[in-house]
Every structure is written in structure tokens, then in C-alpha cells.
Design brief:
Blueprint (H helix, E strand, L loop, with lengths): L2 E5 L2 E4 L4 E8 L7 E7 L6 E7 L4 E4 L7 E6 L4 E6 L8 E8 L15 E2 L3 E6 L1
Parallel strand pairs: 2-11
Antiparallel strand pairs: 1-3, 3-8, 4-5, 4-9, 5-6, 7-8, 9-10, 9-11
Length: about 130
């Protein structure tokens, strides 16, 4: 069984940084893209960032551009989300996701992706 395992969440003060990691475990599989969504209390889940293995292209939500950086390690089938200059509005559960084929991630309704992690809590205090 394939699993996405997130780590790196926690509590940080506004202006601080965190680095999230998402590793694959279980049966080896290939994906077209991996990335992150987040869901704040009382809000819908939203796209954050995506990493395409083909061409190593990156995509970001407007709300995180210039502050967050997504990267990938194909040898480990892992992606990372470096989050800088965090604000309380970034507080949410962050979910790693992966898809076997190309699709648009930043859209409504959210895309039906092949794999999801359990989520990791990020809390930014003011």
C-alpha cells in the first residue's frame, strides 16, 4: 500500500520559518507531481504548491508566492516545502498529495488526486 508521510509541522512565531517534508512509503510508485494543500479551521482545503517531476516545474498559490518554496528529491520520491515569513493566516493542517498524471491543482472544485497524506499541523502565533 502506498502512503504519503508528512513531517515538519509545529508551532512558530509570526515571521518564523518551517520546513515540511513529504516522503513516500510502501510500494514504489511513480508520480507525475507531488505537492501541498492546506485547510484552516472553518475553511475549505486550498492549494498551496505543486512540484512536477517532468521539467521540475513549480507552481504556487498567490498567497504564498515569494515566501514558500517547494522542491523535490526524485531519488527519495520526496518533496519539501520551505515556508518563510510565516503569518497567523498560514495556520492550517498541511496535506501532502501526489498524482500519477497531469492535472490542474489550483482550481475549484479541488482536483481528485491519487494519494493524500494524513496532514501535519502548522500553527503560527502572532
Amino acid at each position: 500500500q502506498v502512503q504519503l508521510v508528512e513531517s515538519g509541522g509545529g508551532l512558530v512565531q509570526a515571521g518564523g520559518s518551517l520546513r515540511l517534508s513529504c516522503a513516500t512509503s510502501g510500494r514504489t510508485f511513480s508520480t507525475y507531481a507531488m505537492g501541498w494543500f492546506r485547510q484552516a479551521p472553518g475553511k475549505e482545503r486550498e492549494f498551496v504548491a505543486k512540484f512536477d517531476w517532468s521539467g521540475r516545474s513549480t507552481y504556487y498559490a498567490n498567497s504564498v508566492k515569494g515566501r514558500f518554496t517547494i522542491s523535490g528529491d526524485s531519488a527519495k520520491s520526496s518533496v519539501y516545502l520551505q515556508m518563510n515569513n510565516l503569518t497567523p493566516e498560514d495556520t492550517a493542517v498541511y496535506y501532502c498529495a501526489a498524482n500519477r498524471g497531469p492535472t490542474v491543482w489550483d482550481r475549484r472544485p479541488l482536483p481528485r488526486l491519487d494519494y493524500w497524506g494524513q496532514g501535519t499541523q502548522v500553527t503560527v502565533s502572532s
